[in-house]
Amino acid sequence: MHPAIINDFLELVQIDAASLNERAVADAVTAKLKEIGCSVWEDPESARALGGNAGNLYAVLDGGLEGSILFSSHLDRVANGIGIKPVFSDGRIVSRGTILAADDLSGVAAIIDGLRRVKESGEKHSRVEVVFTVCEEKGILGSLHLDYSRIKSKTAYVLDSPGRIGRVINSAPSRVSIAIEIKGRAAHAGNAPEQGINAVAVGARILTSIKEGRIDGESTANFSTFEASGPTNIVTAKAVIVGEARSRNHAKLENYLAELGAVCKKVASETGAEITVDVTHNYRSFLTPESSETIGLIGRVFDDMGIQMKVEPGGGGMDANRLSANGIECVGVATGYAKNHTPDEFLVAEDLVRSGELVQRLISAYSSSIKS
To answer: How far is CA 231 from each of CA 76, 236, 284, rounded to the nearest angstrom?
Structure first.
């Protein structure tokens, strides 16, 4: 017989879902929250804004004491998450042929379990707020459309990070999407190639003139798409390059974009091509200092649990980026999964169980700190 948190997780991952199609998972989670005694509200505006069939979920468990603490995870999953059949293997939960969706239903299950433990204890506690977002896997869009006026907490724990329990993510990068459009000039490739401007050659000059991959210890860039087509007897007149850049230091990201703009301007001047760079700012970096009370609190809880805390920077964005941008001090918290987004994804069952305990202890420790 499995603990309640394991049963919750196994149930939720077997509900087919994806970004913008979280309806069935949202309904199951809402029912569990209400059974515990939470008040729950689903935001229809976030569903309309995103074009999905479910909105962000907000839940509150009042406990009679001052203060407010927030926990968050996301309801959606990446593709290849249909027909998940979880099985146990050497202390791990795995799935055969699909992702497991431990990213991030392990976080959802841990928060539900922590709330259940607190409720069953009968102890008074501070207000506990929960946000379960939709469409996190598509550019962290759910939390872009959160109604932040509903959130009273200034301290938050986002259970959405790979790694063994004890890993805490205190920073994540800014991210931008980049699209470079190149307009050259068509000409007959055999009779008058010198009259043309080859957009493919222009694009190649840009890519060989700008840094990519690992830029420095905080920054990366990746250009994943180079599109151009046409018959071989015509000088290609149009090409598009698509990529992204990230940095945990936002100023460094802006400097990189300035360098890219300067390279494109120089290449345009040298070749006669028209080059347009379109940059979309997806989300902003965050940094929660190790000296912060948010990290201090979870550190003390880990000590009490006999777990060594490991504070590390993250390389990908998460809902914590947007929570931080809205004045909420937060960190990412690992729940025991690894190889997420792949068919080799797995979750350490013991870490999941202890993650539910972690949520309960964080609520208790925060409430005690407010009382004192």
So the answer is: 42, 8, 42
